[in-house]
Amino acid sequence: MISLKRSTLGFVVLVTLVVGAGLGTWGAGAVDQIKPAAPGGVVGPLPSGTQPRIVPAALPIPSGSFAQVAESVAPAVVNINTVTRVSGRTPVEEFFGDEMLKRFFGEAPERQQVQRSLGSGVIVDASGIVLTNAHVVERATEIEVATADGKKHKAKVMGADRKTDLAVLKLQGGGPYPAANLGDSDRVKVGDWVLAIGSPFGLQQTVTAGIISAKGRSIGQGPFDDFLQTDAAINPGNSGGPLVNMTGEVVGINSAILSRTGGNVGIGFSIPVNMAKRIYTELAAKGKVTRGWLGVSIQPLTTDLAKGFGLKEANGVLISDVVADSPAAQAGIASGDIIIEFDRKKVDSPQELQKVVAATTPGRAVPLKVWRDKGEKTLEIKIGETPDETVALKSTNKGKGLLGLDVRPITPELARQLNLRNPDGVIVFSVDEDSAASEAGLQRGDVIREVNRQRVRSLQDFEKATKDVKDGDRVTVLLQRGPQSLYVAFTVARG
Length: 495
Known about the structure:
Layout (H helix, E strand, L loop, with lengths): L2 E4 L24 E4 L18 E4 L10 H7 L3 E12 L2 H15 L5 E15 L3 E4 L1 H4 L4 E5 L5 E10 L4 E6 L9 E2 L10 E6 L7 E12 L9 E4 L11 E3 L4 E11 L8 E5 H14 L5 E2 L2 E5 L2 H6 L8 E6 L4 H4 L7 E5 L2 E2 L3 H9 L6 E8 L2 E8 L1 E2 L19 E5 L2 H6 L8 E6 L4 H5 L6 E5 L2 E2 L3 H8 L7 E8 L2 E8 L4
Parallel strand pairs: 10-15
Antiparallel strand pairs: 1-15, 2-3, 4-5, 4-7, 5-6, 6-9, 7-8, 8-9, 11-12, 11-14, 12-13, 13-16, 14-15, 15-16, 17-24, 18-19, 19-20, 20-21, 20-22, 22-23, 25-26, 26-27, 27-28, 27-29, 29-30
């Protein structure tokens, strides 16, 4: 199974030596013959007696070496050692339990387990500001940073942002420090050479080279995924270290790898430095990140859903739920609206909408164009500030037939068992495996709130909304699944 792994070292290092025999000439089968250009830029034959120059197929830079780039950045790269102390008991103490321990041994002493971890970081300000990954320092009770000159410094966390996996540390005393230059990740192109510098497996000041393999990667790590993908070797311990371009500028912060074994397989991911700049600035200034907020649940607009809402093309983002008293609710946005423009810019995916909303200053009024009732409507919304994740957000959403669904009314007892604050709707008791509803993803336990834009408060409402459905008709339903609301569309299969 392929898994995404954060590249922080938290285990015993196993060093494996690999010996190759009979390799012959380096790069055999992967060389080019470079010929001088004839007048006008046309490649001509080599002069008589001239030997062709053999070089690697991908010559990195004119000098043929990365040394100058590495030397310019390495002094700013640091090794981060963390200690996390947590209370715990031995397996024997767990086996006996509190009562048995008290009876035979008296009060069992409180024990602490010490967890150690290694990561990397990069100094971005001469005063000792270090940029790294949030997961490198998460829950750490002690942080020690080793600089390139071998000196060790205590550090404290100035702020961390789990949504982007970025954190800012402040070194305690000893400055000024060598600081790296931050580049422009928007100018990075697929195929550009880059270096990854860090402490893989605890080996400090390790440099690996590769190229930018892709941009804008979403790997399911958070709502603001926008990773640079690289084949520069990134391994456990590289987390938080810089990805550097050929002018010695930091263009990314290494964060994750795709691996079957936990080691490098040539697919690593780095947070673009342009995203890191804004996060770093806010974390250093106030210890937290302020983001714009609409107060809606959103989902991709599929082709089937687009047709169900009367759109010719699946361009836009579907609103599946609206938080009560949120900026969206106050602006009149409703579930079933499709956002097609935000601040006069088209949005085609949930990720795109999340990024532009988050980057909008709270308190600013922004025009919003939505598709509603088969027509466009322009609203104005005053952007709010994303609330604390611990704050509870209340939603404004309140027998088998042709659809392949067996639905039942929601009784007060059932609503209590399912922890439903709103008893409106019908619950899906079972779904025919071969039905279009099943293929669309409807599941046992889903609560149906709407059918074809008609509110469903009871079994009678559901029967009324579906009584005229025929073979080949398109059906769009609004579901409540646990804490989430989502729309599902499908076409009733012909018998």
